[in-house]
Structure formats: structure tokens, C-alpha cells
Design a protein that fits this description.
192 residues; alpha/beta; Rossmann fold; two-stranded antiparallel ribbon; 11 strands
Length: 192
């Protein structure tokens, strides 16, 4: 059974973590969660409220990290998922984050990233020359990282699928699962 890595941290967006996590389990993949350390992660929920110039934030669910980033052997994983939220702001500073993430891009493995994950990818240079979606407020970082910002729900560039935020998840995961089925198929849906 192919394994997929999700890199998350405290303040990852709740829906952007759980939707791909559960969808990939349903598809038949083994999914591992990596974070700066093995601990119970505390997520946040972002919402769009009329009258606010930006999104609001409240406490979300929690979930344990299976392993620390320092323990990850990226060669053991078929694909990578990076949810958004505020976690990417500090994940990019972890000394193990860059090498793990670069492995997936350098090896041309499937990668799905959403929302503010672009904040952590842009400094690594992996967005250079790529068409990339992200939360629209992150468009300057995409462009500073050499990417071409696209305001879209499921932007596919090779084996990389990106989207703006959790409202885009059906299109985002549909495109990503299609790439996985073509390049890293699961043994079958869980329970079959």
C-alpha cells in the first residue's frame, strides 16, 4: 500500500487537514502525519464572515503527529500533502522541512498544497516557473518565489495540484486523486 505524507503543525487549518487525510484513507492509501515534533497538534478553523476584510479564526480539532520531520524518510512516500492555515508560517523555519519537501519536487512525485502552504514553498524555490494557486493574499509570495499565481480551485502543473482554500477541496482532491491513480495507485479503496 503506497504511503502519503501530510506535513502539518499547530494552527493548520482544520478542514484542510481532515478532508485530504480522510479522503486519501478512503482511497486506500496509508497516510502519515509529520510535524516539527511528535505531539498532539491543535488545529484552527478559518471562516469567511460578511463585513470582515479577512478571514476569522477559532479553535479547531486536534490530532496526533505520527512522526517528527527529523524522522521522515521522504523516499518511503509516494506523495505529499501540505494544508494551509497559520502552520506554514513556522513550518518553513524547521531545518528538516525544506529537505523533505524538496525531495518530492526533485523526484517529480505528486504534491497537493492548499491555501497558505505556498508561504512555506516559495522560499524553497519549488514554485519557480509553476502555475500555482493559493489563498489570494499569498499571491505576492507565489510571485516572489518565481511562480505564476492562478486564482483557481484546482490548478494542475505537472504532478502538483494547488488550490485557494477549503471551499475548493472537492475540485482540489478530485484532481490530486486523479494524478495519484495514474502515478501512484493505491491497492484499492480501504475495506475492499
Amino acid at each position: 500500500m503506497p504511503k502519503i505524507l501530510i506535513i502539518a503543525g499547530d494552527a493548520s487549518e482544520d478542514l484542510e487537514f481532515f478532508y485530504p487525510y480522510q479522503r486519501l484513507l478512503e482511497e486506500g492509501y496509508e497516510v502519515h502525519v509529520a510535524a516539527p515534533s511528535r505531539k498532539k497538534l491543535r488545529f484552527v478553523t478559518h471562516d469567511f464572515v460578511e463585513g470582515y476584510d479577512t478571514y476569522t479564526e477559532s479553535a479547531g480539532h486536534s490530532w496526533p503527529a505520527d512522526l517528527a520531520l527529523s524522522e521522515v524518510d521522504p523516499a518511503a512516500y509516494a506523495a505529499l500533502v501540505l494544508p494551509g492555515g497559520r502552520a506554514p508560517e513556522y513550518l518553513r523555519h524547521d531545518p528538516h522541512f525544506g529537505p523533505v519537501v524538496r525531495h518530492f519536487f526533485d523526484a517529480d512525485k505528486p504534491v497537493a498544497h492548499l491555501c497558505h502552504a505556498a508561504l512555506a514553498l516559495a522560499p524553497l524555490g519549488v514554485l519557480k516557473g509553476r502555475r500555482t494557486s493559493a489563498y489570494p493574499a499569498c499571491s505576492p509570495e507565489v510571485e516572489l518565489g518565481g511562480g505564476v499565481f492562478v486564482d483557481g480551485a484546482a490548478v494542475v502543473d505537472g504532478k502538483v495540484v494547488s488550490a485557494r482554500a477549503w471551499p475548493d477541496q472537492p475540485e482540489w482532491m478530485r484532481a490530486f486523486v486523479g494524478i495519484l491513480r495514474a502515478h501512484a495507485p493505491a491497492d484499492g479503496p480501504a475495506g475492499s
